[in-house]
Design brief:
It contains 8 helices and 15 strands. The protein is of the alpha/beta class. Helix 2 crosses helix 3.
């Protein structure tokens, strides 16, 4: 919190009306608050956090490309205190596992919003950390599982089996996974990304953040990105972000 006591807030939600409503409710609170920016997706949020360095982040969980948990993972220890705002209560336990300050269900009530902001103020004044990213992101190696020698995907009314060398990368899609292939086609797999990760040949594939597993055989370029993170470019031009906690694993896999 700034010396003036004014809390600088960033709102991230892929729905414009949700951002507008939260912004309006924050302005109505009897608290010194400045909304320093709004983001409609995780990538915008990361860029704005880098630029604005807010004191507090209101963060939706379900967003396209990068969800709320992806944002936290990619920012690492540079992430400000987080209050999750979502329409789904099934994420509550996970939200507190990543040490979020609070968890608000939509539609947000004014009394709960005020309580959440005061909780942040209390933590700031006491100097207590709102969450520990390092605790959250302790690396756990995948448990041994039966390997997927071919990846089963849905195609019309069939199940097709895709060879590993035909796959550029895997993308999380809720409880499913999207498989992006070298032929330019994308298929849906009934396994979630964690299942895929545990059962792949991990000498070829690497989970580079919560929502993506990349085939390192098709990595064309790797470059530094935001505060210790990296970005890789695949041979088809796809750019994927690498979480800070995964950088060392990526370098080791690539022999760097």
């Amino acid at each position: 919190m700034k010396e003036s006591g004014n809390i600088r807030i960033l709102i991230t939600d892929d729905e414009q009306h949700a951002r507008n409503r939260l912004h309006m409710m924050l302005k109505e609170l009897d608290i010194a608050i400045t909304v320093s920016g709004e983001a409609s997706n995780g990538r915008e949020a990361i860029n704005l956090i880098k630029k604005e360095k807010p004191d507090l982040l209101f963060l939706d969980i379900q967003m396209p490309v990068l969800d709320g948990f992806d944002v936290i993972e990619l920012l690492g220890d540079d992430c400000p205190p987080v209050i999750f705002v979502t329409a789904y209560d099934e994420y509550a336990i996970k939200a507190f596992e990543v040490h979020a300050v609070d968890y608000l269900l939509k539609p947000v009530r004014k009394d709960r919003l005020k309580e959440a902001v005061y909780r942040v103020i209390k933590k700031m004044e006491s100097g207590a950390e709102s969450r520990s990213i390092k605790q959250m992101m302790t690396e756990i190696e995948p448990r041994p599982r039966n390997l997927l020698h071919k990846v089963p995907v849905n195609y019309k009314k069939e199940i097709r089996l895709i060879d590993h060398h035909e796959i550029f990368w895997f993308e999380a899609d809720g409880k499913y996974t999207r498989v992006h292939t070298t032929g330019g086609k994308t298929y849906l797999c009934d396994f979630n990304l964690s299942n895929i990760e545990e059962r792949l040949n991990n000498t070829t594939f690497l989970r580079i953040h919560r929502s993506a597993i990349a085939n390192l055989d098709y990595t064309e370029k790797i470059e530094p990105w935001f505060k210790g993170g990296y970005r890789i470019t695949l041979k088809d031009g796809t750019e994927l972000d690498v979480a800070r906690r995964r950088v060392d694993y990526l370098k080791a896999k690539l022999g760097l």
